[in-house]
């Protein structure tokens, strides 16, 4: 398991080992002990999500479940190569409002760990893109929050994305209004 830091402290890129042979490959996509031994002690995982986006240019985000339902998310790609983005929304954080984005392809198995207190979103680059992510808290519909995808200067590489109604109506990211304290 390779663990690479990003410019946002707490957000890391994980690359699990793959054991290839003439059938294909085998990979432990998540292993608590391996991560702990590598110095990454993640909170308990309680939910695993799987989404399929049929069209290239589909953008889901930017989302956050508000406290006390905030979720850390370990995101990977089942098919395709989405561009995955985390935004630091912890008030008082030195990197508040800053974003980090990276491509998570099925081809290389890279994963993005996004702690609670961050917004999350992704855009698909190919049809039939599958994104799979483990969460550290259960989904609560009433806590579901969204911020406008185009309000943070993120270079998504798409001008007119396919959006849900919720994401089309999401408010802009506004200074000081984040529900997350600095220690979210
Ligand atoms: C997120 C979620 C949604 N749902 C339901 C609510 C709704 O009827 C349907 C679709 O929900 P959404 O439109 O919110 O799905 P989606 O736009 O894919 O939302 C997801 O986007 C990515 C970027 C995230 O980080 C996730 O946490 C989540 O917010 O699924 C659940 O039952 N459980 C869940 O955990």
Automatic annotation (TrEMBL):
Gene3D superfamilies: Jelly Rolls
Pathway assignment: Carbohydrate biosynthesis; dTDP-L-rhamnose biosynthesis
EC number: 5.1.3.13
BP term (GO), one: polysaccharide biosynthetic process
UniProt-listed InterPro entries: RmlC-like (IPR000888), RmlC-like_jellyroll (IPR014710), RmlC_Cupin_sf (IPR011051)
Catalytic activity from the UniProt record: dTDP-4-dehydro-6-deoxy-alpha-D-glucose = dTDP-4-dehydro-beta-L-rhamnose
One Pfam family here: dTDP_sugar_isom
Site feature Participates in a stacking interaction with the thymidine ring of dTDP-4-oxo-6-deoxyglucose, where: 139
Keyword Lipoprotein: no
Keywords associated with the record: Isomerase
CC terms in the record's Gene Ontology section: cytosol
Enzyme class: isomerase
SUPFAM superfamilies found in the cross-reference section: RmlC-like cupins
Subunit structure: Homodimer.
Biological role stated in the UniProt entry: Catalyzes the epimerization of the C3' and C5'positions of dTDP-6-deoxy-D-xylo-4-hexulose, forming dTDP-6-deoxy-L-lyxo-4-hexulose.
Protein name, as recorded: dTDP-4-dehydrorhamnose 3,5-epimerase
UniProt source species: Paracoccus aestuarii
């Amino acid at each position: 398991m390779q663990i690479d830091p990003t410019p946002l402290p707490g957000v890391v890129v994980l690359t699990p080992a793959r054991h290839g042979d003439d059938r294909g490959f085998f990979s432990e996509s998540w292993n608590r002990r391996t991560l702990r031994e590598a110095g990454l002690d993640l909170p308990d995982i309680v939910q695993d999500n799987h989404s399929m986006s049929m069209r290239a240019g589909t953008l889901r985000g930017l989302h956050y479940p508000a406290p006390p339902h905030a979720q850390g998310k370990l995101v990977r790609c089942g098919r395709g190569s989405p561009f995955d983005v985390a935004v630091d929304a912890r008030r008082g954080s030195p990197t508040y409002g800053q974003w980090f984005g990276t491509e998570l392809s099925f081809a290389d198995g890279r994963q993005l760990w996004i702690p609670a207190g961050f917004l999350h979103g992704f855009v698909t680059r190919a049809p039939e893109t599958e994104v799979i992510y483990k969460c550290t808290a259960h989904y609560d519909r009433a806590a579901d929050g969204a911020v406008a995808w185009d309000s943070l200067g993120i270079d998504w590489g798409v001008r007119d994305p396919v959006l849900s109604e919720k994401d089309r109506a999401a408010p802009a990211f506004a200074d000081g209004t984040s529900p997350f304290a600095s220690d979210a």
